[in-house]
Amino acid sequence: MMRQYELVERVRRYNPNTDEALLDRAYVYAMRAHGTQKRASGDPYFSHPLEVAAILTDLKLDDATIVAALLHDTIEDTDATREEIDRIFSPQIGALVEGLTKIKKLDLVSKQAKQAENLRKLLLAIADDVRVLLVKLADRLHNMRTLKWVPEEKRSRVAQETLDIYAPLAGRMGMHDMREELEDLSFRQLSPEAYDSILGRLQALKENNGELVAAIERELSDAIAQKGIEAVVTGRQKRPHSIWRKMERKSVAFEQLSDIYGFRILVDTVEACYAVLGVVHTKWPLVPGRFKDYVSTPKQNDYRSIHTTVVGPGRQRVELQIRTRQMHEIAEYGIAAHALYKDTGGSDPLTRDSNAYAWLRRTIELLAEGSSPEEFLEHTKLELFHDQVFCFTPKGRLITLPRRATPIDFAYAVHTGVGDRAVGAKINGKISPLVSELQNGDEVEIITASGQTPPAAWESIVVTGKARAAIRRATRAAVRSQYAGLGKKIVERAIVRAGKVFSEEKLATSVGRLARTSLEDVYAAVGRGEMRSDDVVKAVHPEWTGPRPEERAALKGEGWFELEQGQSLKFKIPGIESDPDPLTAIPIRGINRELPVRFAPNGGAVPGDRIVGILSPGEGITIYPIQSPALQDFEEEPERWLDVRWDVEEDDPQRFPVQIVVVATNEPGSLAQIAQVIGERDGNIENLRMSSRSADFTRMVIDIGVYDLRHLNGILTDLRARPVVSSVERVNG
C-alpha cells in the first residue's frame, strides 16, 4: 500500500506547489475513517481510495481532486459527514465527495431504477464540477481491476454497467486510454472465451510478425525524415475489445481483419500534420473510404487527429493517426489534459468549458427530461454509446450525430419543432426516405408541414436520446388529447343524463375539488378511466345523488359490457405517460360509464385475438378482433383507431363474449349434443337463435362465453368431431 510521503511525491512531480499539508490531512483522515474495514480481497479498505488517488496523479490533477479521491467513500461507508468534511477541508471538497456518494435510501421496485437514480445524481453533480466524473472513472477503473474478488453474481452486472455507461462516458470525455482499459476489463468478464481467443491470436500474430511493426516504423520514419519533418512514429497492437467490436460490426472473422496494428505519428505543428499526410499519400496508395480529418473538424470531445489507411510496406494495410503532441495529450487524457483542472490549489472554480464538458452539460439537461428512471437510463446509453457522423444543413451548419442516425435524428438535432413537423428529407439534393442511414458529409434538408405530429413508430427508428424523448412527448400529448376529447364527451353526456346543463365555466370552478390542476386534466382522467364521471357530476352539482336504475337499464340495453361490483377488465394502450413501461392498463366499467368500452356486436373478441379499439365520439370505445370485416368501415378514419392489447390476469380468469354458427343435422338430440360439448369444455351459452335452412339441417347462432382463444378453439374442435355437426364457424362481426 502506498505510503503518505509516496503520494505527496507523485503529486509534486507535476505540481511543485502542491499543498502537502492538505494531502497529509486527507490521507490520515480517510485511513482513520475506514479503520478496520476490509475489501472483498481481504486488503484494508483504505487501499482502494489510495489507488484511486494514484490513478488521478497519472492524469496530473489538482490537489482538490486528489483529496476528493481519498475521501470519496467516507460519507457513504463511514461515520463521516458532509459538514465535517466541509469544516476540516473545504466546502468545495465536500461538494465533490457528496457528488460521489450513492443514494442509499431509495424506495424503488427494480435494481435498474435504483441504478438510474444513482446515475442521475452523479450526472447532476458532474454538471456542477467535472472533477466528480474524473474521480468516479478512476474509482470504477480500480474496481474493475479488482473485480475477481467480487462475488460471482455481482461481477457481470458491474461489468455490463461499465461497458454501457462508464467506458463510453470516458470516451466522450476524450479519455481514450481509460476507455479502452475499461472496455477490455468488462469484455474479459462478460465474454471470457471470446476474450481469451482473441488474446491468443494476437499473441501468435505478435510472435509471427515481431519484426513487421519495427520495419514499418523505420520505413515511415525514413520517408518523413527525407522531407525534413521531425516526427516520432510508434506502432501498437489493438486491444481485444476493439478488435471484437470491429469483427461484430463488419461481420468478419479475425483472419479477415487487415488493420490489427495502428501507427501514430507525432509532430510539432498543425502544418506538419498535413505535410506528413502528403508524404504518406504520395508514397503509398490510400485505401478508399478510410480518411478522416478530425483536425479541421474536431469531435465533440475535443479529439483532433488525421486518420488514414494506406497499403504500406510489404503490401500491408497500415492505419495511421497523425497529430501534434498537444493533440496527443488531449487524445490520451481527454478533459483531464486541460490546464483548467491543474494548479488550481483546490479553490478555483471552473471558469470555462471544454467542448467535451459543454456537450456533457447540454446532454444532462436533455436527459433530465426523462419521465422515469428507466427512461433516463435508456436515454443516457443512447447519448453515450455511439460513434459519430458529421452532416450539414443547406446553410452549412455542422450537425454531429451518432452512427446509424437518420434524417429524423438530424431534424430533432436542428430543433425539436423541426423534428415534430418533419414529413420528408432531401439528402445531397435527392428526395430520400426518413429512415435512410446518414453518412459523413451528407447535406440534409428537412421538409416540414404544419399540423404534422411524429408517428409513434419513429421511436423504434431513431438512435439519439433527444429524438426518442421528443417523439415520446409528442405521442403522449396526442394520446392525452385523444383521451381528453373522449373524456369531455363522457362528462357532457353524464351531466345531461343527470338533468343538468353542461357548462365548462362552471366545471372549471370545480377542478380543485377533483384534485386536478386544469379542465383538460379532468377530461383526460375520465377518458383514461382514472376518474368516474359520476364524481365529476357530483363535484359540479353536490346535490346530485347518482344515476337512476332506469338509466342503468338503458345503458345495458345499448350493449355495454357489464361487470359485477368490484370486478374490472383490462386492456393495454401504448403511449400513456404515467408508466415507465409504455403500456398502461385501463379498467373497463361500462355500466357506470367510467370508461365506455364494449365489444363488437356479432362476434366479440377474446384474449389471444389481436384487437383494436375504435373510438366513437360521444359513444366510447368498441373492441374488434383484427380480422373483423367491420373494420373496413373505418379505414378512412385512422384517427379513430386505438392500439389496444389484452392485460388479463391468469389467476383470475374471466369469460369473454364470442359468437359461433353451427350447422347441424335436423334430428332429435342434436341440440343436446352441441350443448353437452360446450358444457364439458366449460363454455357458457349466453344466447341461442335457431333457423331451419332445409328439412335436413338447422342453423344455430350461439353466443358463448370463453376464457381465451385456446379455449374457443378447443370447443370448435370438439364440435366438429360430433357426427351431428355439419359445420361450425366463428363469427367475426
UniProtKB/TrEMBL annotation:
The keyword Cytoplasm does not apply. It catalyses: GTP + ATP = guanosine 3'-diphosphate 5'-triphosphate + AMP. Keywords: GTP-binding, Nucleotide-binding, Transferase. It is an enzyme of class 2 (transferase). Residues 387-448 form the TGS domain. Residues 659-733 form the ACT domain. Its EC number is 2.7.6.5. Belongs to the relA/spoT family. This is GTP pyrophosphokinase rsh.
